[in-house]
Design goal:
globular; 69% helix; mainly alpha
Length: 520
């Protein structure tokens, strides 16, 4: 009875041990992730001070709204179920999209215009467009879940986190070898070996942060730049924002695939929460995420958001509701006080990379364990595709830093050296490409030839519109690829016509399992 009556008290203000660990981790992850676009763009000549003061603050408003929303949703669920162990959904920065928008939209705009405001407006407009796609998809979320094969959803998720994000961020583990190895050793001992750290059993990430911060300050590997406190408005609409909403349509080849990834991530987050007993609404999740993206874009933020599918990990950590109530408030205060850069310096890349390594492995493992064995071939095919985007983005950043334009002559040299044209074809719209190829593969494994042909046909349409295989969105952007996808459609249909009726309904994995053992 006492527990029931306490349900109506504002217990989400109470911070238990699990909430404290989650707060430190969640704040550290998001304050560091917030800096990624600024740090990427700083390498090509966009002043870090401009990015921190103009492009980043708008995120804090959307993050605050999300924090209030998920807190209210968790409180409502707790009252409905009569449970005090409900955990808030985990909302934060969409790092794959933030990285892609910076490198593939904002960087080209800056190279073309050499205008900081234009670069800023293009990023904010991209976030706004993503919000629109999320809102439009919300009412159809149940149909989306039925339309896309579950193994394909898990593969897109793993391709973004395990293949793409981990390879891009984990290399920074050795930006400071000393701090990187210390961070990794603590995380491996505390998380992989599951050894209690300290007699208080502190979170491995908290222990790693304290030790790495102390060692870094002593060794000089960490230099906290104190710029003083100065008021910064979180609301600062980018100049010419409206015009770049129209101009960014040409970058739908980046925005649409990343929006698809965000939508699938939101769906996966709801499923993950449901598996550990917290039933949230898919429609409400997408709607809330979409509204937050619109607010961030209008307020000048260039940081896209997503609902993380790591709900079970936070629940196992002991997090309940209060952690997501306080983190956005602290984030907003840090931004308003103009302390974003000192706060970012408190969480060095070496520590962040160790955490990303752990999260990425968790994502990869979750994907494998949630995909039936017969679909593993499709999964393994899908997760190698992001490698092309990593190569493309690295080359583009390097050329931009060297102030070398990607002229036809340069492209010709790159094509001879590293096969630049096919790499670009695979890299453009790579997450949409992962979805199409994996969905086709899953359907063929299940011998659903007609559905597989439809996915191939969708690939042809996507290539023609520039959503995949092309750097720009438009009519007839990648005709050679569109023809290739059409040919693939014809091949699948011809195979279907030639397959004996008795084989059309059986699974295709039996012949590929353990081929060596079959020979013996």
């Amino acid at each position: 009875m006492a527990e029931s009556s306490s349900m109506f008290k504002p217990y989400w203000f109470r911070v238990n041990r699990g909430d404290l660990d989650a707060m430190i981790s969640h704040f550290g992850v998001n304050i560091t992730d917030m800096a990624i676009p600024a740090l990427l763009l700083a390498g090509v000549g966009i002043p870090l001070d401009f990015s921190v003061s103009h492009m980043l603050p708008g995120f804090s408003l959307g993050f605050l709204l999300a924090g209030l929303w998920v807190t209210w949703s968790a409180r409502r669920l707790a009252k409905k179920t009569g449970r005090l162990n409900v955990t808030s959904q985990v909302f934060g920065i969409n790092v794959p999209s933030a990285t892609a928008f910076s490198i593939s939209i904002m960087l080209p705009v800056y190279q073309l215009t050499h205008n900081l405001s234009a670069c800023w407006a293009s990023g904010a407009a991209a976030v706004f467009w993503m919000g629109i796609f999320k809102l439009v998809s919300a009412p159809f979320s149940k149909y989306i879940r039925r339309l896309i094969p579950r193994p394909a959803v898990m593969t897109v998720f793993a391709a973004a986190m395990y293949s793409y994000l981990s390879m891009m961020i984990v290399v920074r583990l050795f930006s400071s070898p000393l701090l990187g190895v210390i961070s990794l050793a603590i995380v491996l001992c505390g998380v992989f070996a599951k050894i209690p750290l300290t007699r208080w059993r502190l979170s491995p990430f908290l222990v790693a942060w304290i030790i790495v911060l102390a060692v870094g300050l002593i060794s000089g590997d960490i230099d906290i730049q104190w710029t003083g406190m100065h008021l910064t408005s979180p609301w600062n609409m980018a100049p010419h924002f409206g015009s770049y909403l129209v101009k960014d349509i040409s970058y739908f080849s980046i925005i649409v695939p990343m929006s698809v990834y965000a939508i699938l991530q939101d769906l996966a987050s709801v499923e993950a929460a449901k598996r550990v007993g917290d039933g949230y609404s898919v429609v409400n999740t997408l709607f809330m995420d979409g509204v937050c993206s619109l607010i961030i874009g209008v307020s000048g933020g260039i940081i896209p958001t997503v609902m993380y599918a790591v709900h079970p990990s936070y629940k196992n950590l002991g997090a309940r509701i209060s952690y997501h109530f306080w983190v956005p408030i602290v984030m907003l205060l840090v931004v308003i006080a103009g302390l974003s850069m000192p706060a970012i310096d408190l969480f060095p890349w070496s520590l962040r990379a160790a955490v990303i390594a752990y999260v990425s492995i968790g994502v990869g493992r979750a994907a494998i364990t949630n995909i039936e064995h017969r679909y593993l071939n499709a999964f393994l095919l899908g997760i190698i595709i992001p490698g092309a985007y990593l190569i493309q983005s690295t080359i583009q950043e390097s050329l931009a830093a060297l102030k070398i334009q990607l002229t036809p002559q340069v492209i010709e040299v790159l094509d001879k050296a590293i096969y630049w044209e096919p790499i670009s074809g695979m890299a453009n719209g790579f997450l949409m490409l992962v979805l199409i190829i994996t969905a086709m593969s899953v359907c063929l494994i299940d011998r659903k030839f007609i559905v597989a042909a439809l996915w191939s046909l969708f690939g042809a349409l996507s290539a023609w519109l520039g959503l995949i295989n092309a750097p720009r969105f438009g009519w007839g952007e990648a005709p050679s690829y569109a023809i290739a996808w059409l040919a693939g459609t014809v091949v699948i249909l011809l195979v279907w016509l030639g397959v004996p009726r008795a084989l059309r309904s059986s699974h295709a994995d039996t012949e590929m399992e353990h081929p060596i053992s079959r020979e013996h």
